[in-house]
Design goal:
Its cofactor is a divalent metal cation. Its EC number is 3.6.1.9. The active site is at 83 (proton acceptor). Nucleoside triphosphate pyrophosphatase that hydrolyzes dTTP and UTP. May have a dual role in cell division arrest and in preventing the incorporation of modified nucleotides into cellular nucleic acids. The protein has six helices and nine strands. With 217 residues, the protein is α+β, with helices and mostly antiparallel strands. The chain has one domain: Maf protein, CATH 3.90.950.10. Strands 2, 3, 4, 5, 6, 7 and 8 form a seven-stranded mixed β-sheet that branches. It has a two-stranded antiparallel sheet with strand order 1-9. Helix 3 (99-109) crosses helix 4 (146-154). The radius of gyration is 19 Å and the shape is globular. The protein binds thymidine-5'-triphosphate (TTP).
Length: 217
């Protein structure tokens, strides 16, 4: 990226970060904010949950794992890792292994409330600090017939999504309501993340020339 490039949104990127993610959704979420970043997915498979590991502890551990693996390759830049899981009862639901598992998951989620938790880890080499946090959202799924769920699975969208659905995609029809951050369900809690990126100087608000006329409300 051209680090002198003009800002594309409300933030100027002062320290381009490395996004340790292969998720097109995470890449899109940062891009839509106009934040400049490099993409360097973690080449190692994320660790599975430990027995009885709390969901928030797991997604944090997984996000840290991804960030630390990529930071080994880019020790000079801030590195952001993230991990999102759908929690139903005591089960941590990641991405389905196949269409059958995706359908079974969606049948379990139908008509219920479930949690979506995302862990984020930002490694800041300049400050020699690692920042971590989790964000929780509650999703209420409507009741859907087996035929509809089978047709949704056949679309292929569920196969690379935690919980076997994409709230931002075709799967939006499944969701009756969300409490908490919507972007957290997609894969990055942008409200909390942009606060952290500002605190660490990765981004700053774009300066508005004082000559700019105030917007007539
Ligand atoms: C619940 C939900 C998940 N997802 C996606 C976001 C993530 O890409 C994926 C969660 O799996 P993750 O393991 O968090 O991420 P990933 O494997 O896709 O990418 P990486 O590990 O390289 O960062 O599910 C949606 O796109 N929409 C949704 O509504």
């Amino acid at each position: 990226m051209d680090e002198d490039a003009p800002p594309r949104g409300p933030f100027r990127t002062k320290r381009p970060l490395v996004l340790a993610s292969a998720s097109p959704r995470r890449q899109h979420l940062l891009t839509q904010l106009g934040i400049y970043f490099y993409i360097l997915p973690c080449s190692q498979p994320e660790p599975p949950p430990e027995p009885d590991e709390l969901p928030a502890d797991y997604v944090l551990r997984s996000a840290l794992f991804k960030a630390r693996e990529v930071a080994k390759q880019r020790p000079d830049r801030p590195v952001l890792g993230a991990d999102t899981a759908v929690i139903l009862g005591d089960d941590i639901l990641g991405k389905p292994r196949n269409a059958q598992e995706a359908l079974a998951t969606l049948q379990r989620l139908s008509g219920t409330d479930h949690e979506v938790v995302t862990g984020c880890a930002l490694i800041d080499p300049d400050a020699r600090e690692t920042h971590t946090f989790t964000a929780h959202s509650t999703v209420h799924m409507g009741v859907h017939s087996l035929d509809v769920l089978q047709a949704y699975v056949a679309s292929g969208e569920p196969l690379d999504k935690a919980g076997s659905y994409a709230i931002q995609g075709v799967g939006s029809f499944l969701v009756e309501s969300v409490s908490g951050s919507y972007t957290n369900v997609v894969g990055l809690p942008l409200h909390a993340l942009t606060k952290l990126l500002q605190r660490t100087g990765v981004i700053t608000p774009v300066e508005i020339p004082c000559s700019a006329e105030p917007v007539e409300l």
